[in-house]
Amino acid sequence: MAPILRVDRLHKSFGAVVVADDLSFALEKGEALGVIGPNGAGKTSLFNMIAGVMAPSAGRVLLADADITGMRPDRRCRLGVGRCFQIPQPFLGLSVFENLLVAASFGRGATRTPERQCVAALELTGLSAKANTLAGRLTLLERKRLELARALAGQPTLLLLDEIAGGLTPHECEDLVRAILAVRATGVSIIWIEHVVHALLAIIDRLLVMHQGRKLIEGDPKTVMASRQVREIYLGVEASA
């Protein structure tokens, strides 16, 4: 069976700044991959190229063996690519349920029963009691949950999480991790960019470290975090320490 996603030798630069340099990796169905790296490593640019917001200069993005490199973001969404942003931007004047209905109308299987999709997303993310609450009245944690629920309402097969734990307290972060674990249990494949490493390690199967647009190292999360390269470049710890 083909991987759910293959990133094949992506390259992208903005003048002298290289955000993707011969970048390749694959994601298996149901797998969770973590991505870390210093600021400016190219992590969000990677997501932009997977989601279709940014076109690579070279290389390909394949979703279940279909080449989606030149495809618009809305078409990728309908094929099963969902995304959560670091700063949630819901429709503040709409209720939580209405926000989910908008997402369900443009996601995979949008012609079916969007209400059922929304109810399922609310239950999975623990937002059922807030279904009729205006999004503008939610706490930060609840908005993060709504960001996750909106992506799920589109029935993604691949979910991109961009620093979704940012700004949360340790207790709130634990709540969010439980919600993401519940999402994982449904079989959704996940790529998660995150600086809150302890939250990331509770979810992922593999860890990829980026540096200056390149893949620095990839593999077992504990092994990667203990490597000399990661200690020096990402954690800022001297090799002799």
- Remind me, CATH topology? Rossmann fold
Total count of domains: 1
> What is the percent of helical residues?
25-40%
CATH class: Alpha Beta
Tally of extended strands?
10
- Over the alpha carbons, how many angstroms does the gyration radius reach? 18 Å
CATH architecture: 3-Layer(aba) Sandwich
Can you summarize the main beta sheet? 6 strands, mixed
Uncertain residue segments? none
Spatial strand order of the main sheet: 6-7-8-3-9-10
Helix tally equals: 9
| SSE string, helices as H and strands as E | EEEHEEHEHHHEHEHEEHH
Indicate the structural class: alpha/beta
Gross geometry:
globular
Mean pLDDT: 92
Could you walk me through the main structural features you see in this protein, from its secondary elements to its overall organization?
The structure is a single chain. This protein has 241 residues and is of the alpha/beta class. It is globular and about 50 Å long. It has a single domain (5-233), classed as Rossmann fold (3-Layer(aba) Sandwich). The strands form two sheets. Strands 6-7-8-3-9-10 form a six-stranded mixed beta sheet, sandwiched between helices. It has a four-stranded antiparallel beta sheet with strand order 2-1-4-5, covered by helices on one side. It has helices at residues 43-51, 73-79, 96-106, 114-125, 140-153, 170-184, 197-201, 221-225, 228-233, and strands at 5-14, 17-27, 32-36, 58-63, 66-67, 81-84, 158-162, 189-193, 206-211, 214-219. Helix 3 (96-106) packs across helix 4 (114-125), helix 4 packs antiparallel against helix 5 and helix 5 (140-153) runs parallel beside helix 6 (170-184). The model has no long low-confidence stretch (mean pLDDT 92). Helix content is 35%, strand content 25%. The longest helix is centred in the C-terminal third of the chain and has 15 residues, at 170-184.
